[in-house]
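Fold Annotation — chain and its backbone
Encoding — discrete vocabulary of local shapes
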Amino acid sequence: MKERFAVLITTEKNIPYQQNLTKRQISAVILPTNDIPIVETLLPEIEAALTDLNPGDVVRIPASKL
């Protein structure tokens, strides 16, 4: 079983520049928008990102999916 850690799902694109997550038990998934209908279409990409996420990772879901 993987160790447990927190995941921040956000639209704040500057998180990687504001916070060094590499030595923390938190990761970030950065969405291109917070518009619910668009986020719903991105759910497969979000789920895939969460599946492969490790502590300290930052994953950006591309805006090209919009």
Notes: The CA atoms of residues 9 and 19 lie 14 Å apart. The beta strands are 6-10, 26-30, 58-60. The radius of gyration is 12 Å. The chain has a mean pLDDT of 86.
